[in-house]
Amino acid sequence: MKYVDEFRDPQKAHKLLAWIRKRSTRTVRLMEFCGGHTHAIFKFGLRQLLPPTVSLLSGPGCPVCVTASSDLDRVIAIAHLPEVIMATFGDMMRVPGSKGTLQRAKAQGADVRMVYSSLDALSIARANSDRALVFLGIGFETTAPTVAATILQAQAEGLDNFSVLSLHKLTPPATQAILDAGEVKLSGIIGPGHVTTIIGADSWGFLPRDYGLPCAIAGFESLDILKAIYALVDMIERGVPGVSNAYGRAVNAKGNRVALRVMHQVFQTGVAEWRGLGSVPASGLSLRDEYAAFDASRRFPVRVAPSQEPKGCRCGEVLRGIITPPECPLFARVCTPARPIGPCMVSGEGACAAYLQYGEV
After folding, report:
1. Domain shared by 127 and 202, yes or no
2. Whether residue 75 sits in one domain with residue 150
């Protein structure tokens, strides 16, 4: 408790806010990539405490939200195969594809099971050797190494009924895609804390080098985020963009080399489909040929009809920072946590869920 309180100290927060107000003389727009940051910012009321010169935009940092409808349709089609057990994280159960959800597929008879980790899925495979277990691999660089390690464990045990449908995505290419699109003018990036513990702060060096934008890596307590915002404001005011690590207790320059080695051993990068961003080069992770036996996309090559987005849903624009959730005509009217139309209202990291939970309507 003392450790948490240290990073929520109201006196330190007040001092940091005073520094930001004093230092900030020009209007800036900062994007937090991570959905966890979005919820933390609302939870601690930071948007209301910051000076009017500093505005915060939410980005595509919710792995559930950015999963494309076409990929969800493929997942649901595989789940309906009679020999398959589909294992997935809970948030994915209610994310809508073109024609339903995994929750609906389960109600229709598909064997869909919620798990807390890829190792839980491995346990299900061990207990059901006569059936094929497909684990739905979603998440960013934080999750991918654990899934890669699970595949290596399955290989070591000779579990030939275990496979992974990898929808893992990489964060820096998505940031580049948003900047290259030029739809929203940004002054700086609040770098994702958990992701950067894996990939290292140096991975964000392309932002100041190629785009002239500062980046500050943040943790998830109030002081973490305020330190990152102050670092960004200071770099902007000085006109010297760089990468500031405001989460030094967890993040280093090079990242977690063990996790990266395992991830790159099992996965290779390639094009991935992102909701709201479309096809983004070098932003997805697929299994290397050496691990083809564990690749569900090769073992179950289902065909699905062209995907369709929910009518009226503007989740894609929310993910790109073009609009805020209340600007979507469905927000809090038709689309609610009880009956979500788009994934941004489903996930615990979704921007729409954050706005509604904390009263920003």
Report:
1. no
2. yes
